[in-house]
Design a protein that fits this description.
The chain is mostly beta strands. The chain contains no helices and 20 strands. Strands 1-4-7-10-13-16-19 form a 7-stranded parallel β-sheet, with no helix packed on it.
């Protein structure tokens, strides 16, 4: 059965998860905040769609543990651990398939990447990815991150987008 989470606000504490999906889920109109914790944790082999949602000041807005995640028209602001760490400390961590369109990913912790793609496929297009010291890190898989706005027409700052198969053209 597909779970539906709509139009609610969650405050996540340290070590907690706002939404832990072990079944397919549609999430829309949700605001998740906290001083740490995970906004949406996606278990292996499930399909999760997140639309029109806001994630603020979390360790991970989205943690994809080998599922398929689509994020549309959402805002991820001020997320990522302030302590330097592995990719799992990033605002968005994905070890599965990730599709992002028309989102704003901004003001991530300078210690970690805004988006960390560990493996799987990623299609990240038409987003505003700005005010992040480190934007994207891509390990393995096919990652396409074209047609994004990086806060400047020159694209991401040198060294802030590493390993993606394609990040050009920029918006």
């Amino acid at each position: 059965a597909k779970a539906k989470v709509t139009d609610c606000t969650l405050n996540v504490g340290a070590g907690d998860e706002g939404i832990d999906t072990n079944d397919d889920a549609d999430i829309s109109g949700v605001t998740i905040t906290g001083s740490s914790g995970i906004g949406v944790y996606v278990e292996c082999c499930v399909i999760v769609t997140i639309v029109d949602s806001n994630f603020m000041t979390l360790t991970n807005a989205i943690y994809n543990a080998d599922g398929e995640v689509t994020v549309k028209n959402s805002v991820i602001d001020g997320c990522g651990s302030a302590v330097p760490g592995t990719g799992t400390s990033s605002a968005i961590y994905s070890d599965g398939d990730l599709y992002m369109v028309n989102n704003t990913i901004q003001n991530s912790s300078a210690a970690n990447y805004a988006i960390y793609l560990d493996s799987g496929h990623a299609s990240i297009h038409f987003n505003s990815i700005l005010n992040n010291t480190k934007n994207i890190w891509a390990e393995d898989g096919m990652q396409f991150c074209e047609n994004n706005w990086w806060g400047t027409a020159d694209g991401p700052a040198p060294g802030s987008a590493i390993g993606a198969d394609s990040i050009m053209p920029y918006l």
